[in-house]
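Lab notebook: predicted structure, single chain.

Context: the supervisor wants predicted structures on file for every construct in the current expression panel, including those that have not yet been purified. This is the next one on the list. No modifications to the sequence; it matches the entry in the shared construct table.
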Amino acid sequence: MPGFGAAWPCAYKGVASYRSARIGDRIVADLAWTYEEPLHDAAPVAGLVCFYTERTDPGLDGVAIERPATPWA
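Prediction complete. Output recorded below exactly as produced.
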């Protein structure tokens, strides 16, 4: 997943780095984020990647889940 250059600070977890993804012929900007070097109390999230379900077609066990309607959609 290529980086997109966006980074936002969080007072609790540190700096989040946002990632984009190429899906077919298009690039979906800021589809996911990660804390590459989280602050001490957030160390368990190091290396994990979180996806915006608002920008994906989520599903669980092969069953589609409705996209949430949020300000980040």
